[in-house]
Fold this sequence. Notes:
By secondary structure, this protein is mainly alpha-helical. 67% of the residues lie in helices and 5% in strands. It is built from twelve helices and five strands.
Amino acid sequence: xxxxxxxxxxxxxxxxxxxxxxxxxxxxxxxxxxxxxxxxxxxxxxxxxxxxxxxxxxxxxxxxxxxxxxxxxxxxxxxxxxxxxxxxxxxxxxxxxxxxxxxxxxxxxxxxxxxxxxxxxxxxxxxxxxxxxxxxxxxxxxxxxxxxxxxxxxxxxxxxxxxxxxxxxxxxxxxxxxxxxxxxxxxxxxxxxxxxxxxxxxxxxxxxxxxxxxxxxxxxxxxxxxxxxxxxxxxxxxxxxxxxxxxxxxxxxxxxxxxxxxxxxxxxxxxxxxxxxxxxxxxxxxxxxxxxxxxxxxxxxxxxxxxxxxxxxxxxxxxxxxxxxxxxxxxxxxxxxxxxxxxxxxxxxxxxxxxxxxxxxxxxxxxxxxxxxxxxxxxxxxxx
Length: 384
């Protein structure tokens, strides 16, 4: 147990935020096992081991919680000092993953680096680095947030470099999240409204051009608009996800009762975990998950507002940036599963199978808890 000011650390934490996080982690562990047990039993590469994904996911959660505990111990002023260096390391990792024989290619995408039997995904760690860097940049350039040349242009250049590396993998989903984080933090930090509007317009135009001039992205859009036109081809994932939602109705078919996870729904334990939740736990289960994410996002903005009131602007932007990150990624994943957005390879934060995403997201929430912890200490007249 870690102690501070002769009090157990747990008493100094936001109990509701911590509870929502642990709830999603626990439910995610259960649902990953439920969604993956059939595919694990039928996979000769892992010796037909039914608990393969469960065991690994449990290890990921343990590693994520350990990393989060370490991250929490570091004061926000230290994170601000190292933010530019972490961002440079993140960019270097995006370059390394593109090098043949180092980056691992799966289904035409080179997004992973193999290390000690595990797959590291640099784009996940870049999201965290972008939050810290964008917050630090905005605070340092606060006096120039109304200037195109001194405030807007440098960050636009940084976003262009980051986006180019992410799209080279390609990882369009990570690029969308990183862009949303950067734009939101700049706006919250006081970016001129005209410059903000111009940046949003530029990003939207860029997204449209990327889709129009990319055959496989255009194919996904067409499949999204009418998945039932080609249910065995470009609409396969979406149609099966929709069938899972339809079968779940209000209260679901019961834990373990999903039919779609029996080899019909691809990526059931990663990108389409919510569809399995919908089928087994019904509308009530999906609603509980959405409410938990909404609570975390709202709480992040509340914590950020409290930090801003104490003129802790870096801490405020970090907290709100984390809220934007969790909210945007959850919205995209939920939208994809429900057929409201085109199919995109983004996991459900804190729940989907995957070590890099789990560790990074838990570290992000540890930073959010750290901001709240420092707010509480200052309110009590203690040093942080």
